[in-house]
Recover the amino acids of this structure.
């Protein structure tokens, strides 16, 4: 029953996505949150290499301190796209096989942790909104010390983002 | 509308109530059923979402245990839950479908990843061969992994199953490596039969009460409405009909409505009016005539006493007066005679101008007829100048067989008497002088012991070879006789 419901919602959103995609495919001039190509193994993508992009809105991330803890807050409309490639060695001509994306939109019914979690196929343009807790469960670990990037050893609230945007380098 | 008939009928109210009751029962019953069923489904959903939250909480707890490297404590925790409520079981499966902790393979991998023998392999008991059903395994192990929840009916029990992937979180990767997304599958199995049954009974109870109350209220409202709309007016119409039956024509149905019942009321009113008019008419027609309207017989020979009474000199009298006066005194004189005839058990067969034709059919018909005649003469003679404009009547009486029947055309027929004896009586009446009563010998034979009569006289009448033997009876009994 739950599955049918989920399916219905997915269809609904797929129908909507057809009209107005949430994720644009022209993001090549966007900023990168990390310039390197990531290729250490992570659950889900193993050691297939990955690139991360953030839109202009996302670069205006607000970083403030409250009671000794730093809180990141990405403005509504922030889009972060992580490209997933099919291989573990980087070639310039490669095309991503999948886009995993986060869109900041706390008012959206499907948002979890303030983000809508989307998987998009760059080939077909199909967008799938993840309504279950899967993505956010893992990304909650970004808000505490974790093994990636700067490892967040200060236990900052990173707004579910493993690689925060730090500004122009 | 006899009493007997009344007790036999089934009141319309009862029938209508029955119909309404059945309609309401089915209608509301169906509605309640739908309501109950919908509620039941919602309840299932509610139980399901509750369990989903529970499973999330459990998931967090498991996560914490694992991180501490206390997987065995997590297992104990699962067992504890099973002990608290046998209807609630939690199991952890590997992504291969095998039960977690069924052997030491995980511990070995962890130790390898950590580079030190951090966990001691446990001593294995009897091998736990339980595996996760392939369809659930496949359902969870998708890209991305899925939570699965379903309700399954196994025999009489309803089970809620929840399968949830245990994700290989960044903090788990230290021990478990990064080569997989799903660490395992948590299977929560809850027998919700009792919950559902309890809730279902509650719904049934609430639904039943609402249903009954609603039915009762509607029943009262509809009955009340029907009573006002149908039963009361029908009864009013019935009452008017009863009154009409009893001969009271003046009552009318007082229903001012624009529907079938209003129409029925109007019809009954015009019926009562019509009957009244006819009844007024029937005053001047013999009750024998009216009775015969229902009889099948066309005609029969009956022995009876015939009385003819005629106003003497009425033609010359009427010529001198105006019509209204004539009709008035004629009616007065006919009226009093009719009354007297009825009082003596006779029937007026018809009025022919100023003449009354009446019949007596009781056992002592001749005596009755004579008494009527005597009474008439007494009344008219005594009050002639006072009430009857100095008019007088002559009366002829005869006893014998006559033919009784419907005489006339199809369009207009009267129940009347014909025959020779009728003609004879008419003759007797014709020859009777004012105040005189002439009776035929045949009648005389029947009254001679009771009423004094003079005679016999011989009377010559037209069409009769031999004269008739007639007698005179006088109004002052035993007074000799009038001429």
């Amino acid at each position: 029953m739950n599955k049918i419901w989920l399916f219905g919602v997915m269809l609904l959103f797929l129908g909507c996505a057809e009209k107005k995609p949430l994720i644009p495919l022209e993001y090549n001039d966007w900023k990168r949150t990390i310039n390197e190509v990531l290729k250490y193994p992570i659950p889900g993508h193993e050691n297939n290499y990955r690139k991360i992009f953030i839109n202009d809105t996302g670069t205006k991330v607000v970083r403030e301190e409250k009671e000794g803890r730093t809180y990141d807050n990405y403005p509504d409309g922030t889009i972060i796209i992580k490209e997933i490639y099919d291989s573990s060695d980087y070639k310039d001509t490669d095309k991503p096989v999948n886009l995993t994306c986060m869109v900041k939109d706390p008012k959206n019914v499907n948002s979890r942790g303030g983000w809508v979690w989307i998987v998009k196929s760059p080939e077909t343009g199909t967008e799938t909104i993840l309504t279950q807790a899967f993505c956010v469960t893992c990304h909650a670990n970004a808000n505490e010390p974790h093994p990636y990037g700067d490892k967040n050893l200060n236990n900052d609230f990173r707004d579910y983002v493993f690689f925060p945007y730090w500004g122009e380098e | 509308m006899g009493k007997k008939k009344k007790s036999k009928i089934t009141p319309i109210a009862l029938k209508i109530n029955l119909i309404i009751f059945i309609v309401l029962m089915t209608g509301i019953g169906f509605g309640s059923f739908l309501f109950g069923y919908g509620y039941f489904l919602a309840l299932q959903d509610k139980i399901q979402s509750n369990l989903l939250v529970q499973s999330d909480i459990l998931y967090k707890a498991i996560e914490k245990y694992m991180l501490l490297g206390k997987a065995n404590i997590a297992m104990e925790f699962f067992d504890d839950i099973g002990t608290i409520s046998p209807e609630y079981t939690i199991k952890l499966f590997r992504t291969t479908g095998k039960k977690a902790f069924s052997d030491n393979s995980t511990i070995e991998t962890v130790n390898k990843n950590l580079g030190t023998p951090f966990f001691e392999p446990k001593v294995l008991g009897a091998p736990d061969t339980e595996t996760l059903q392939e369809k659930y395994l496949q359902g969870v192990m998708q890209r991305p992994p899925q939570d699965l929840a379903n309700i399954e009916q196994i025999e009489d029990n309803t089970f809620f199953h929840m399968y949830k992937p245990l994700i290989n979180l960044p903090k788990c990767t230290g021990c478990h490596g990064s080569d997989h997304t799903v660490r395992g599958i948590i299977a929560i199995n809850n027998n919700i039969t009792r919950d559902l049954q309890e809730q279902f009974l509650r719904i049934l109870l609430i639904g039943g009460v609402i249903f009954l109350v609603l039915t009762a209220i509607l029943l009262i409202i509809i009955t009340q409405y029907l009573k006002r709309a149908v039963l009361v007016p029908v009864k009013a119409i019935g009452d008017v009909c009863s009154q009409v039956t009893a001969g009271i024509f003046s009552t009318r149905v007082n229903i001012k409505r624009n529907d079938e019942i209003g129409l029925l009321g109007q019809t009954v009113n015009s019926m009562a009016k019509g009957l009244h008019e006819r009844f007024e008419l029937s005053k001047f027609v013999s009750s024998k005539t009216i009775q015969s309207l229902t009889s099948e017989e066309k005609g029969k020979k009956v022995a009876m006493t015939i009385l003819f009474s005629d106003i003497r000199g009425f033609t010359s009298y009427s010529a001198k007066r105006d019509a209204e006066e004539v009709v008035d005194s004629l009616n007065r004189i006919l009226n009093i005679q009719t009354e007297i005839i009825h009082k003596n058990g006779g029937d007026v067969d018809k009025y022919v101008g100023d003449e009354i034709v009446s019949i007596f059919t009781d056992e002592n018909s001749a005596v009755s007829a004579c008494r009527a005649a005597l009474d008439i003469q007494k009344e008219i003679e005594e009050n002639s100048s006072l009430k009857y404009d100095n008019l007088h009547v002559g009366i002829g009486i005869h006893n014998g067989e006559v033919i009784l029947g419907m005489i006339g055309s199809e369009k207009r027929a009267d129940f009347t008497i014909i025959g020779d004896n009728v003609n004879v009586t008419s003759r007797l009446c014709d020859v009777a002088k004012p105040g005189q009563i002439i009776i035929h010998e045949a009648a005389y034979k029947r009254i001679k012991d009771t009423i004094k009569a003079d005679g016999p006289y011989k009377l010559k009448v037209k069409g009769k070879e031999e004269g008739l033997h007639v007698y005179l009876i006088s109004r002052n009994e035993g007074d000799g006789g009038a001429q």
Remarks:
- Residues 33 and 164 of chain A are 6 Å apart (CA to CA).
